[in-house]
Amino acid sequence: MTENELIWRLAGGSGDGIDSTSQNFAKVLMRSGLHVFTHRHYPSRIRGGHTYAELRSKATPVRSRGDGYNFLLALGDSFARSPDEEAYYGNEEVKPLVENLDDLRDGGIIVYDEGLIDIDDVDSVLETSLEALAAEHDWHVYPLDLRDIATDHGREVMRNTAGVGATAALISLDLDPIEALMSDSMSGDALEANLTILEAAYDQVRDEHEIDHDVVLPEGTHEEAPVLLSGSHGVAYGALDAGCRFISGYPMTPWTEVFTILSQHLPEYGGVSEQVEDEIAAAGMAIGASHAGVKAMSGSSGGGFALMSELLGTAEMTETPVVFVEAMRGGPSTGMPTKPEQGDLDHVLYSSQGDSNRIVFAPGTIEECYEQTRRAFELAYEYQLPAIVIIDQKLSGEYRTVPDSVFTESAPDPDPGTVLTEEEIEDAAHHASGSYLRFQYDTDDGVVPRTLPGQKGGRFLTTGNEHNPAGHISEDPENRRQQVDRRRAKQETIREVLDETGTHQTRYGAEDARYGILVWGSQQSTVFEAVDRLNETDNSVSALGVSEMMPFPESEVADFLESVEEAVVVEMNSDGQFRGLVQRELGAYGNRLSSLLKYDGNPFEPAEVVDGVRAVITDDPGVTPPTTRLEPTKATNSR
Amino acid sequence: MSAFNAIGADQEVDTDAFTPGVEPRATWCPGCGDFAVLKTLKQAMVERGKNPDEVLLVTGIGCSGKLSSYFESYGFHSIHGRSLPVARAATLANPDLEVVAAGGDGDGYGIGGNHFTHTARENHDMTYIVFNNEIFGLTKGQTSPTSPKGHKSKTQPSGSAKNPIRPLEWGLNAGATYIARTAAVNPRQATEILVEAMDHDGFAHVDFLTQCPTWNKDAKQYVPYIDVQDSEDFEFDVHDRDEAAQMMRETDTRLHEGEILTGRFFVEEGRPSYSEEKRQTGQMPDKPIVEQYFDEDAEWKPSSDLLDRHR
Fold it and tell me: What is the ipTM of this complex?
């Protein structure tokens, strides 16, 4: 039997307060003892356009969207209405209702604002009646004039509060935690009006409607104190605790979220945030700040990251530690600014001229965003090379409950990495001229400690040109080989360090599985949920969530692939970039790997993964979900 | 207790201290104006009592970018057009450093023009030297942003159809608070101007005319030059933005006609530098950010202090 869950979808116009209302409601559910996962869907517009937020809530930890949902609160799109006339632009205002019916589960609840949504318009758009559809699917429909309730006691924009009050009445949620939360964030007349509206809507539902549905609020308690936050918070807080005290950036969706959080808090943490003229400057400034000794970060999304390419190579050549974030969205070019995609993996791995020498982590969860951002700083500053944390619009913007211990377990890390102190500089090797030999060949792990401008006796030259041990430009072949080999050695060193101290791959599912799923980044949680479902029938599937993109965890991935007969690589792009990486790194398994790809702007839902994997298992492409593409094994590329 | 004791160290230095022992002879052509920048920069450092370990010289790409190879200090030879972002971040990380950025006219007024505009606008406490030879030298003589209209080169065989950039007015409009032009042929004035530029508490823009004897032969050696402060023909107040703008316009127009005017063109005293603005508005700590990594008593606030808003 499926566990009791509430999946609440709040649909309305972009600009109707969907985000804030859903986040507040998520917090209420969290405070009521439940685990919550939020998904938001929105177009790239400030106002207008249909949008929704979805909360999935259970008594046990919830890590992804469900399949469909069971409670629709359709506010109607208030911005579809001309403010001057009472005229509507076509039937836009009914879209939050009619466009969400496909995913509503049988037995689900519909609440809609009949103040904005005219049932005749709904029926004409549907080309059938809502009543008939409801009868067919056992939907329980509650029309309420939310606008009327809101304007009666306050202002029209408070319709969402009325909707929340109605929701509470329909799922038997106590109003106390909602009122407490409202009191935290509002005061005066606004608070009074909202409280009145909340109660009025609650009472109206209770008084005027017979409640005859089966959807109820789950009951639960938290074993550990939870917090509700996003992957962007995970990255930003990881950076703070890694000792990052400088960020430079230029706004671009969805990277802006990480940039905003750090910009708000860095000054109170003794750091500096810089919004600058372009991403080239942003990358250059992070490198400049780091060269001067500050742990620094920059980042962008695909297009902005492209502008950073040349300086990324400069960080590699000058051995300047720095951390970049790449928050992917649909590409190429401007692509789909507010839609998630995993199409920038190759871009992040190989961008910039010359060989690549960097660390790339792709965290799969909020917890991993925090941990891997910390690790990225630690390794970048220890081994003096750029580290990139690659996330996407799904992970960056989804709020979920996680235990607060994730953020409290280890203390902040003020270690500036392999940097000499002035005392150590005195004993270090210098050129006869007095300059420090920053790029000596003779090291075990490829790393020569840095000195920082202003340190006595530490002066050196660094350059984006190939250079000799003293940092001066050199095109001597022997020196070139020595320097390339030394820098390259860092990759092996880091691989060994990760293998010894703990890697960032997550294995999930059956022990002796016959089938495997390889997944990276934000799709990990969805795949794990799919694994649970696939294993309900015959326990034959196991997944490996891979986070270390460079240096690549060859043996871990190879061991996993050796342990299964066949594997499906699940990713949100159309090239199968991660599958390509696996093949490139391992040079084998071509006859065992197929790809399940999705690139329509929406992340995978668990059922799509289930069906896609079944298509591979049963060798029946006919069951592949229409929203995805299955690319079969490349037998010619076999071992 | 600072971890950066070269800064402000009481130390007698001469120009030899800024001469690296490691690099072979400069690769600049005989008669190149770039030698004068190197020489006067060393002299200006000595006159300011600076030592090589407290100076960060960030250069771009081009003949001018080689400056950091021949100048002994902390050096960052960056990439084409990007010296200013690297340099200005260093002033934020450690405001007590003596930060100088340098590059050519293609580097600063062409590919890096956006950074020039915004670094000047932000008024970072640093000095930017633009080697202006009105040509791309290292890549063998192509037309540059400051080349005169009609300039012929292999990439502009019929002559440039563009008017040249007017760097002085650009710097003024962008927000630089010290703007001067000097010439390689006048090392005395150049040294004085570099000393003033580094003393200046804000973004100092020095357009340094450096003749290119190899690729810009037909053009000028920038002689004779006129120092606008010494000449009685020019009356204007360097502290007056409007008068400065007018003088700059005339100066660049005359440059294109072959007459060389040099000197100080604009000085704005009293406008806080960017670091100062940020400190005053609570966006930057009083102590250099970098010091906290070496201060055992520094407090490292955990991110968990922010969790209440998520409960």
Answer: 0.98
